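re: ur question from yesterday

yeah so i grabbed the chain u mentioned. its 95 aa long if i counted rite. heres the sequnce exactly as i have it in my notes:
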Amino acid sequence: MQQNKEFSGVTTRPPRVQWLNRTVLGIGLASLFSDWSHEVATTIMPAFLATMGAAAAWLGVIEGVSDGLSSFVKMGSGFYTDQMRRRKPIAVFAS
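ran it thru and got these structure tokens back, copy pasting raw so excuse formatting
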């Protein structure tokens, strides 16, 4: 630590870097609300299907199609972004 010449015996510290900045907080809140909405929809889906008179097997079909489509979209978008030279524009645009 360096001594401050104006005040003897007083040390100055470098400023602390705050890890919880606006970006981290924003991404954290977006992730929280995204996960929360997915979990709520997954929890409510069986009751919603029951009110429509659908069989329990339809829940499995819906979840299976959802997971399958999600995997194919991730695979396709991963292939597409691997071909790009710069990924920042698509990350900014997709936000």
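noticed a couple things. The chain has three helices and two strands. also Helices lie at 22-51, 57-83, 88-94.
anyway ttyl
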